Amino acid sequence: MSDASVPAVELRDVVKRFDDVVAVDHVSLQIAPGEFFALLGPSGSGKTTTLRMIGGFELPTEGEVLIEGEPQGYKPPYQRPVNTVFQNYALFPHMTVAQNIAFGLEMRGVPKDEIRRRVGEMLNLVRLSGYEKRRPHQLSGGEQQRVALARALINQPKVLLLDEPLGALDLKLRKAMQLELKAIQEQVGITFVYVTHDQEEAITMADRIAVMNHGRVLQVGPPPEVYEQPRTLFVADFIGETNFIPVEVLRVGSTVEVLTAGGARLQAGWAEPSLNAGAPAVAAVRPERMWLHRPNTAPEGGPWNRVEGIVRHVIYHGLDIRYEIHLAGECSLHVRLPVGRGDADVFQRGEHVIVVWPSEATRVFRRDS
Amino acid sequence: MNDALRRYPALRAWLLLAPSFLWLLLFFIIPLGIIVVYSFLQRDVYGGVVWKWSLDNYRRVFDPLYFKTFLYSLWIAFLTAFFSLLFGYPLAYFIATRPEKTRNALVLALMIPFWTNFLVRTYAWLTLLRTNTGLINVWLMQWGLLDKPLPLFGNTFAITLGLVYGWMPDMILPIYAALEQIDHRLLEAAEDLYASGWQVFRRVIWPLSLPGVVAGTMLVFIPSLGAFVTPAILGGGKRLMIGNVITNQFLGAHDWPFGSALSVLMMAVMLLATLVYFRTGGDRAGQGGL
Ligand SMILES: Nc1ncnc2c1ncn2[C@@H]1O[C@H](COP(=O)(O)OP(=O)(O)O)[C@@H](O)[C@H]1O
Ligand SMILES: [Mg+2]
Fold this sequence. Notes:
Order of helices and strands of chain A: EEEHEEEHHHEHEHEEHHEEEEEEEEEEE
Mean pLDDT of chain B: 89
Order of helices and strands of chain B: HHEEHHHHHHHHHHH
Number of domains of chain B: 1
Structural class of chain A: alpha+beta
CATH topology of chain B: MetI-like fold
Strand content of chain A: 35-45%
Distance between the termini of chain B: 42 Å
Largest interface: A-B, 25 and 22 residues
Radius of gyration of chain B: 24 Å
CATH architecture of the largest domain in chain A: 3-Layer(aba) Sandwich
Largest sheet of chain A: 6 strands, mixed
Helix content of chain B: over 70%
Oligomer: heterodimer
Structural class of chain B: mainly alpha
Bound molecules: adenosine-5'-diphosphate, magnesium ion
Number of helices of chain A: 8
Number of helices of chain B: 13
Radius of gyration of chain A: 25 Å
CATH superfamily of the largest domain in chain A: P-loop containing nucleotide triphosphate hydrolases
CATH topology of the largest domain in chain A: Rossmann fold
CATH architecture of chain B: Orthogonal Bundle
CATH superfamily of chain B: MetI-like
Number of strands of chain A: 21
Distance between the termini of chain A: 42 Å
Shape of chain A: elongated
Mean pLDDT of chain A: 92
């Protein structure tokens, strides 16, 4: 059935307005069959609304939602080949685990024997065999989550929509469930559209991520691409940890050069296309790309950026040591160095250092974006 | 004293509760005790009480004359609860599904008529229902829609109507409260799982509103069983309920011991009904974990 050339889900220029609030603003997406696709963004960025339009709980004000190439128009949720795992699960409190899971099949008139068999299979899949007779309030958060998953998956939807499914769980359980969810998705091969505001979760689980803000999709791509090549200041800031250095653009084009407030010249691998020479901008660098040197050992020349600074804080984190380096011009950088390379690699508070990083790891953004 | 209170929090609770206990004891438990004691005594010829123990009063209760009235009262209470539920549930559902502001206004509107005295409202029904001079029959005959008045008064219909009217809010409010608490995402989840509108109601909304239905039914059934104002006025003196018989024993026939026995029996039936009802319906609904 699932033809690889037809997207499992496609949004064409979709807009959703609630009175004067634009919840979703001209969003276009293509999600491939079998893909684990994350919608990532801060609260209020329009993720839930986007998901609800795919599910049929909201209808687009403009644009079109297609599932397996078929325009969904005004179809209600139960006529779409999708199922939803709701935020906070929405399990039926008056039904047992088995009754909850069986609900969808029962509504479609599937014979009793088959229902029993498939409920058993589902309980196996989510590792809840023996929990048939329990009620939702007798389950832990993680168990409720798995029941919600089983209740949706038993209907064999083409696409499963999940709205912050792990949002209510504590950190440790969330990590475990992330792996479990991912494993289940690979096992059943169903397309997952997964809403989360947790960038780490999106990065660990998804095949591709769409980063949303203010109802707009800012960037779509596989996690390494979104992480390493953010195309807006918002994406660079929202995903992972980033150092921002206020700069002025000196040169754009095949090579990008900027000037820091402290007077250092930096080369950058990439600059936002709309930037011109003279414009105020921000240079962004991931902390793990940076190194510290003592002034006498710093490399000269080559494809490196160098700035001088003073060690302000040293924080030991087990696997690494995090340094806060104060630069001239009211700016500080976070640098993360692995622990355990011995010798003189530990720097002291107050020490003069040179921060060094590859020029290509520098990305320059418009200050207002 | 203060130290003692701090050391024994239970003591403080008891002191705070003491006035309520005293009140209950004086005006509730003692009169109840008196009634129970009276029901085992005998009347004297002048309407007083003779301190001679006997079970005669309870034997008389099962006299077909009284026992039939008793069954009739049960029947009326059942009808009242049934029709209150039939009409009250949709209304509660309607109110619970309005936007919040409208909801509060509607609940208020529901209660406003009940700020008027019950007796006055029941007499208002009288002017509408009376067989020959009641407004409904008069108008229907004036417009030539009828040539004989409808039997709207002095019968089971009139009494049930009056009671349903009187106790309807006690049915609607608990159901409304239960419905209002239902998480709308449960309805979306059911819809997502292919339930039709009717199935969403039957499988999700109804079971989750059962605690309200159980509470509402009891709140209507019990006062209807003991009603005496409504049957006295709308029954037209022709149909009596057990409440009228009891009133009559105390005020007319001056047979307090027999009136007490009837009261005790009625209370026993109410208690039994409550226990049985909450055990079956109430428990099943309660498992929802609401
Ligand atoms: N039913 C609604 N009525 C009015 N505004 C809404 C409604 N649903 C969402 N919004 C608004 O749309 C925006 C996006 O909301 P939502 O999609 O829930 O964001 P997210 O899931 O990313 O937190 C928010 O500003 C929110 O207040
Ligand atoms: Mg949301």
